[in-house]
Write a structure and sequence with these properties.
Number of domains: 2
Largest sheet: 5 strands, parallel
Number of strands: 18
Oligomer: single chain
Radius of gyration: 21 Å
CATH architecture of the largest domain: 2-Layer Sandwich
Number of helices: 16
CATH class of the largest domain: Alpha Beta
CATH superfamily of the largest domain: Aconitase, domain 3
Strand content: 15-25%
Length: 460
Amino acid sequence: MTQPKSFAQKAIARAAGLDHVVEGQVVDAQPDVMMSHDNTAAIMQIWREFGQDRVVAPQKMAITLDHAVPAPTTRHALNHAEIRKFVARQGIRHFYDIGRGICHEVWSEESIVLPGQMLLGSDSHTPHFGWLGAFGAGIGRSEMAVLWATGELWLRVPESIRVTLTGELPLGVTAKDFALRLIGDHGADGGLYASIEFAGDGIAVLPLEQRMVLPNMMAEFGAKNAYIAADKKTVDYLAVRRVRREWILAESGDVPLAAAATVLDLTQFDAQKFEPQIADVRAQIAARALTPDEGVPYLADYIYSAAELEPYVACPHMVDNVVPVSALAGTRVQQAFVGTCTNGRLSDLAAAAAAVAGRHVAAGTRLLIVPASKQVLTEAMRLGYIQTLLDAGAVLGVPGCGPCMGNHMGIPAPNEVTISSANRNFQGRMGTRDADTFLANAAVVAASAIAGEIVDPRAV
C-alpha cells in the first residue's frame, strides 16, 4: 500500500520530476520561480565566479528592490544601479524597481507563483507563498547563484507538522496573534526544517490577507516551508491578476523587457471584459493545486480553538517570548511601526486607522506607517486610511521593508522601545543593539502609539 503523501512530498516530487519522494530524501529540484531583491548584487558577484555570461532561465527569475528604498547610501545606490543593468542585459521581465513594494507582497499581487508550484528565494520569509498553496522556501545567496547557473538545486524533503485551527477568531484577534501563540507555545525552533501544514475550518474562514500572515511567520518557527490549501478565494484572486498581468505585458510591445513589469499597477483593467480568459485560467490554476493525502503520519499535530486566542505580544529579544497584551499594560513606547511583509497590507492599515481615528499620537512617541506595496498604498489612500493616519500624527514611508531590518530609516535610539507589526525582534534587528522591540498585530501597535504605552485596543 502506498503511504499517504504530505504537501511537501508532492510539491518537491513535482519540482524534481519524480513520481514520489520520501521524507529525508535529497533530490535535485527545478523551481518555477527564483526570487531575489536588493541582495541580487551580492548574488551576481558569486554567479560571475562560474564564468557564465547568461543566466540559464531568465523567464523564471523575479527581482524587486525593496529592502533599502530609495537608496540611503552611495553603496546601496551602486548596488541598485548594477541590478538594473543586470536585469536589462539578461532580459528579466519580472523586475520591480523602488517603491513597488516588498517582494513577497508584490509577487502575490502579480500572481508570479501559483498553487502547487515551487518558489525558492534569497529571503528568509519566502515560506510566505504557502498562503496560496505553493512551496516557498528561503535559500542563501550562494544557492541562488547556483540556480541562476544551472536552474536546479538539491533539497532535502522535510517532515511535516499539521496545525489545525477550529472556529472563528474573536473580534480584535488576528492571524498574527495565532502565529505568535503557536511560536510561543512550541519555541522558535519548534518547526525546524519542517513543512507546516495549516488546516481546519478556522483557516478556511480567514480572509486572504490574514492567511498570508501565517506562512510568513513560520520562518520564525524555523520552518522550511508552510502551506494553506488553495480554495476558491485563492484561485479567484490569482486568476484575475494573472490575466491582467499577461494582458498588460502583451500591450507593452515597445517597452523594454526589464521595464515592462513596472507598468502593471498603473493600468486600469476591466475584468468583466476578460471573463472567458479568467475562467480558463481559473480552471488551469485549480487543476494544478496540490493537497496532502488523508492519513499523513505527521511529525506533530497541534490543534487550537480560535475562541481561546487573544492578542499577544512577543517581548524582547525573542519571537517566542510571548505573553498576552494585558501582561504588558503600561510599558512605555517611543516608536510604533506598522508595515513589513507580515503586516503591511490593506487590512492592517485599516485596523491601524480605526485605532487612531479622531485621536493623536502621544507626545514622545512616533508612529511609522510603511505600506507593503504601492497597490496597498493606493487603495489605502482611496479609502481614506492614509489621511486618518496622517491626521493622527503618523509618518508615511515608501512602500518597502522600511525599518524592519534596521538598515534604512526608522532606526530607534539606544534605550528606546519600539512596538512593531514585523516578524523579528532579536537584539539589534532594527539597527540599534541597545533598543527593545515588541511584536504585535497592527491594531495593538497603532493603539499603543496613541497611548504612548502598550495597550489592548479592545479596552480603549
